[in-house]
Amino acid sequence: GVAAAAAPPEAGPGPAWQSKCPWGAPKPTSISCSLADVMSEQLAKELQLEEENAAFPEVVAVAEGPFITGENIDTSSDLMLAQMLQMEFDREYDAQLRREEKKFNGDSKVSISFENYRKVHPFDSDSSEDEVDWQDTRHDPYRADKPTTTPKKGFIGKGKDITTKHDEVVCGRKNTARMENFAPEFQVGDGIGMDLKLSNQVFNALKQHAYSEERRSARLHEKKEHSTAEKAVDPKTRLLLYKMVNAGMLETITGCISTGKESVVFHAYGGKSTNEDDKVIPPECAIKVFKTTLNEFKNRDKYIKDDYRFKDRFSKLNPRKIIRMWAEKEMHNLTRMQNAGIPCPQVVILKKHVLVMSFIGQDQVPAPKLKDVKLSSEDMKKAYYQILNMMQRLYKECSLVHADLSEYNMLWHDGKVWLIDVSQSVEPTHPHGLEFLFRDCRNVSQFFQKGGVTEALNERELFNAVSDLNIAADNEVDFQAEIEALEKVNEDHVQKHGKKVSAFPSDGDPPIYDE
Ligand code: ADP
Ligand code: MN
């Protein structure tokens, strides 16, 4: 309904549609408004904005989505409850709005959409439903004109009939009339027809609420159109993040660092520790949110299904829990690495499928991946030996194989290499553990050989240096076959003697490479 809607409201008797308007035709008002009024309104708006920005950091601010329907939602927070109630209210409001819209348009050929007045704007609503026509134009026919006369003296009348703007009755009526200036979606009831007098206090409270609602609505629209990162995070996850901020554990969540197939990583400034054990929260944190869209994780089954640590649990779990297990796995693996002194993010907290860890980088800038940084040949060599050492310690001290080790999952920070992304890491005795290790070795060898490190071992030498398995084969195919044979021997052992198995036999214990 573009044509009718775009027309500005005419002076004098309103056009026919006005009589049908559910809010009634706007009455011409000649309310005085002092400069001080305008200023304070502006100030209030500004303060409101400031307050909102502080209270609702960007990434977690948007509160659309079905909070109410979620199972297991912890309702301990008052603010959360308030938000949930608001959501419920908004949904009811939208339903009412839809009925009004239908009634208003009837079977008229020209129809007006109330879409923009809706409180809840679902992500996945069909775009045709979101189409904006006249609402986007400057002049909204539903919005009463702002009072135009602005007498500077602050009073009206003459002699003994003089009344100032502080007069209670005048002020009350004025406030009631001014409610018409709130956005039409803000329900004010039928106060205007009833000669309702609002106290300044009530009026101001309503005004604040109307402004914040307008802001919220605007923000929803903005987000809907511009944010791709947020689409990756569902409402329940946002709620979780929001609670971390609300609890003061995180100061603010500043934005998204990475959107992958299986996870989204955010940057946050750390807050205060919330419990007594007084674990200091790092000044900057990375929040890894494991995606709850299940199909992305299908191809990872083999990592976790055969990991004996998770074997008993796997069969009993629903997909949502399996995803939480990835996060849990990353946490355990990081902790092992931390204990072995391998440079990696430090675990801060795990909540469901959300893992908070220390941020590798500074001032919101994440450390570059090894693939993106141009190192001097000296640093390159240094990085290589450091990685060799880390792979050995990971294998021997942590009893882990990274299983996705490459220049994509190593960051260069503070003049050294940091290992990240260890949710898929497995123990060497995992049925495919040695194959994963061999793949890791291939990635590392190739990267450093291409990078001009002449000392770099080839993948087979590297594999032996890490595992001490001393496989003698001098070609890829035979080497691979021996690896698989070893895995088979191990599997048989597991079948016979139960799940916990000793590490692979190795002759002697050559020292770990010392940087
Ligand atoms: P995935 O590759 O599975 O999406 P990662 O754990 O590799 O998940 O994280 C994706 C990206 O996010 C990394 O490549 C890195 O750039 C960034 N990142 C992850 N964790 C951190 C961290 N603790 N500090 C800084 N950046 C991080
Ligand atoms: Mn990664």
UniProtKB/TrEMBL annotation:
InterPro entries: Kinase-like_dom_sf (IPR011009), RIO-type_Ser/Thr_kinase (IPR051272), RIO_dom (IPR018934), RIO_kinase (IPR000687), RIO_kinase_CS (IPR018935), Ser/Thr_kinase_Rio3 (IPR017406). It is found in: Cytoplasm. Residues 222-468 form the RIO kinase domain. Residues 1-23, 123-159, 495-515 are annotated as: Disordered. It comes from the Eukaryota. Residues 135-146 have a biased composition (Basic and acidic residues). Gene3D superfamilies: Phosphorylase Kinase, domain 1 (3.30.200.20), Transferase(Phosphotransferase) domain 1 (1.10.510.10). One of its GO terms (cellular component) is cytoplasm. The keyword ATP-binding applies. GO terms for molecular function: ATP binding; metal ion binding; protein serine/threonine kinase activity. GO terms for biological process: defense response to virus; innate immune response; ribosome biogenesis. Residues 1-16 have a biased composition (Low complexity). Its EC number is 2.7.11.1. Keywords: Antiviral defense, ATP-binding, Cytoplasm, Immunity, Innate immunity, Kinase, Magnesium, Metal-binding, Nucleotide-binding, Phosphoprotein, Ribosome biogenesis, Serine/threonine-protein kinase, Transferase. It catalyses: L-seryl-[protein] + ATP = O-phospho-L-seryl-[protein] + ADP + H(+); L-threonyl-[protein] + ATP = O-phospho-L-threonyl-[protein] + ADP + H(+). Its cofactor is Mg(2+). Interacts with CASP10. Interacts with IRF3; RIOK3 probably mediates the interaction of TBK1 with IRF3. Associated with 40S pre-ribosomal particles. Belongs to the protein kinase superfamily. RIO-type Ser/Thr kinase family. This is Serine/threonine-protein kinase RIO3. The lineage of its organism: Eukaryota, Metazoa, Chordata, Craniata, Vertebrata.
